[in-house]
Amino acid sequence: MDALEQLKFDEQGLIPAIAQDHKTNEILMFAWMNKESLALTIEKQQAVYYSRSRQKLWFKGEESGHMQIVKDVYADCDRDVILLKIEQVGGIACHTGRASCFFQKLDDNNWQTMSKVIKDPKDIYG
C-alpha cells in the first residue's frame, strides 16, 4: 500500500502538519495539507501546504521567499498528523515576520508577545 494511503485525512481531505526546525527542534508553524500538497512536499523536498482560506495549494515562501526545505517527514502514531523537520530559509516562518508562529505565551490570563519581529511584513509582502 502507498504510504500516503496509510494516512488518515479528515472529512475535507486534510491532515494537520507541524513544521519543526530540524536543528533546534523549535516548532515554527502549523498548517494543513491535502494528499496533493503532501505528495509535492515529498517529491520536491520543499513544504507545500493547502490554504483553506484560499482553497488552493500554498508553496511556503512563494511570496515571501521564506521557503522550507524538508529534511524528514514523520507521521504520529495514529497517522493523522504530519511532522515536517525543516530548514527555514531566511529564518522567518511566520507571516508576522517572526521566526515562529508560536510567539504568544499565556501569562496570568493575558497573551504576552515573546519574540521580536525579524523583518516587517510590509517589507516582505509589500
What does this structure look like?
The chain has 126 residues and is mainly beta. Helices cover 12% and strands 37% of the residues. The protein has two helices and eight strands; from the N terminus they run E-E-H-E-E-E-E-E-E-H. It has helices at residues 35-44, 121-125, and strands at 14-21, 27-34, 48-51, 56-59, 68-75, 82-88, 104-107, 110-113. The strands form three sheets. Strands 2-1-6-5 form a four-stranded mixed beta sheet, with helices on one face. Strands 3-4 form a two-stranded antiparallel sheet. Strand 5 and strand 6 (82-88) form a beta hairpin. It is globular, with a radius of gyration of 15 Å. The mean pLDDT is 97.
Core attributes:
about 130 residues, mainly beta, four-stranded mixed sheet, 2 helices
Question: Measured on Cα atoms, how large is the radius of gyration?
Answer: 15 Å
Mean pLDDT metric: 97
**First-last Cα distance:** 45 Å
- String of helices and strands: EEHEEEEEEH
Helix segment count?
2
Helix percent band = 10-25%
Please describe the biggest sheet, giving its number of strands, its sense, and whether it closes into a barrel. 4 strands, mixed
Bulk shape: globular
Strand order of the largest sheet: 2-1-6-5
Low-pLDDT regions: none
| Total number of strands | 8
Q: Classify the beta-strand content into a percent band.
A: 35-45%
The assigned structural class equals: mainly beta
